[in-house]
Amino acid sequence: MDRRPAVSGFFYPSSKKELEELLSTIDREVGEPDSCDNPIGVVVPHAGLIYSGITAMHSFKALRRSPARKFVIIGPNHNSYPRIAAAYSGGSWLTPLGSAKIDSALSDRISELSEKIVIDPTPHSVEHSVEVQIPFLQYIYGENFEFSPIILGDQTKETALEIAHALNGLGDEVAFVSTSDLTHYESHESARRKDHDLVAVIESLDVPELYRILGDRRISSCGYGAIAIMMEIVRLRGGSLKLLDYRTSGETSGDFSSVVGYASLVACPQS
Fold it and tell me: Quick one: DSSP state of residue 5?
C-alpha cells in the first residue's frame, strides 16, 4: 500500500519542479559540511523546508559519505496517540519527487528485534516528522535507497534505550536518521541558550543527562526520544556526535520573539 503525502504543499512544495529548485538552492547554500567517513547516521530537524531546510541539508550531505542505501528514520508522533512505537512495512511513500520504497524486510526485522515496536501504518498517515526527510533522500539518491520509518508515541528513556539496543543489532549496512526540532516558541536568545546546552549533552552521549536537562530546563524538544536512540547507538559503537549546523526559525522569518531551534549533527564511527 502506498502512503500519500500528508504535508506536501505545506512543509514543502507540492510541485516537483518547485521542490527540486528549492532543494537545489539549499544544496548550493550549504556547500560541503565538515563530516566524517562512514557516518553511523545523522540528527535532523523536520520543520518546513524554508525554515529548517538548510540545517537538514547539512546532515544529508554528510550522510552521503556512508555507503549505506538502507535507512531507518526515527521521529516523534506529534499526535501522541497511539502511545506506541510504530514501524511501517510494505509499499512505498509518495512525494512530488516520486516513489520511495519501504524496506519491508528491514521493518519486519526491527519489529522482531524490539519488543517496543509494532508494525502499524495508521499513526504514520498524518505524521510529518519522517515524511519531510524523504525528499532530501530522493534528491540525493534518486530511487537508489530504501527505508524503514519508525515514529514514537512513547519517548520515555526506557523505551528509547530498548529500541537503541535493538537497532544496534542491524549492523553497518543500515544508517540512521533521527529527527527532532529543539526549543519551541521562545525568544531567539532563550532558544539559543537552551539549545546550546542541549547540544552539548547530545554530544556527550549521556542519555540520562539528556532526560534530566530536558526536565530541569523545560526544553521543549519534540523528538527527544529519537535523539536518545541515536545517542545510545553511537555510544554502543564507541563513536561520537558532532554538531554541523544550528539556527532558529527567526533567522528566516525575521521574528525573533518566538522561534523554533534546529540542529543537524553527524554520528561518526570510532576513530
Answer: P
Q: Which residue has the cell 526520544?
A: 225
Give strand ranges (E) for 180-251.
184-186, 240-248
Task: Yes or no: say if 136 and 95 are a contact pair by the CB < 8 Å rule.
Answer: no
Q: Which SS3 state, helix, strand or coil, does residue 100 take?
A: strand
Strands 117-119, 174-179: pairing kind: unpaired
Residues recorded for the chain: 271
Residue 255's CB is within 10 A of a number of other CB atoms, namely 11
Phi, psi angles (nearest 5°) of residue 182: -105, -130
Helices (DSSP H) in 42-84: which residue ranges?
A: 49-63
User: What digits encode the pLDDT tens for the residues 54-94?
Assistant: 999 999 999 999 999 999 999 999 986 778 899 999 999 99
Helix (H) or strand (E) holding 148: strand 146-152
Contact by Cβ (8 Å): 208, 159: no
Domains of the chain (ranges, CATH numbers): 16-268 (3.40.830.10)
Sign of the CA dihedral running 75, 219, 215, 263: positive
Question: Do 150 and 89 meet the contact criterion of CB atoms below 8 Å apart?
Answer: no
Distance (Å, rounded) from C-alpha 240 to C-alpha 180? 18
